[in-house]
Amino acid sequence: MRAFPAIGLAVLEEKEVLTKEEVDSFEENGSHFYAHTPRIVEKGLEFAGGSLSLGLSFSVGVALACKKKKIDNQIFVIVGDGELNEGLSWESIMSIANYGLNNVTIIVDANKYQLDGSTQEVMNMFELKDKFSAFEYGLYYINLEEEKDRKSK
């Protein structure tokens, strides 16, 4: 399962960067929005790397360049928990920690599914919170199901 279509398109619609019609066109013939979303800078999609953790590694390079040029910004990367099976993900996270890149925010859609099935069946990631904590990466954990229940009360 791709994290960006599930989260990114909804966020861009909420922020009125994309229209409801554009988001509703996801996976339709002729749409710009499909599983591997293309680069559409004017819509805020500066880079889309698919499920091989290319977006995460790209963000490390951009963050390092911004730090070097003293550009004060924040880079947001959306990844799926299945994508975190890729070794490049952990090399990127290790680099973020090593270089003190506090200008990178990683959003993990931990839905426990990936293209070939559940993450537990394909490659059990065990506890992602522990892995991120091991790199001393600042971690904010939000369970959206609990949030939804809390807000409905």
Helices and strands, in order, run as HHHEHEEEHHH
What proportion of the residues is helical, as a percent range? 40-55%
User: Uncertain spans, ≥5 residues at pLDDT below 50?
Assistant: none
Neighbour order of strands in the largest sheet: 1-2
Strand content: 5-15%
**SS-based structural class?**
mainly alpha
Indicate the mean pLDDT: 80
Number of helices: 7
Helices and strands, with pairings:
Blueprint: H1 3-14, H2 20-24, H3 54-68, E1 75-80, H4 87-98, E2 104-109, E3 113-114, E4 117-118, H5 119-123, H6 128-134, H7 144-152
Parallel strand pairs: 1-2
Antiparallel strand pairs: 3-4
Give a concise summary.
With 153 residues, the chain is mainly alpha-helical.
Q: How would you describe what is shown here?
A:
- α3 packs parallel to α4.
- The chain is mainly α and 153 residues long.
- It is built from 7 helices and 4 strands.
- The chain is globular.
- It has a two-stranded parallel sheet. Strands 3-4 form a two-stranded antiparallel ribbon.
- The two termini are 30 Å apart.
- A hairpin with a 2-residue loop joins β3 and β4.
Keywords, separated by commas or semicolons:
7 helices, globular, about 40% helix, 4 strands, two-stranded parallel ribbon, two-stranded antiparallel sheet, mainly alpha, about 150 residues
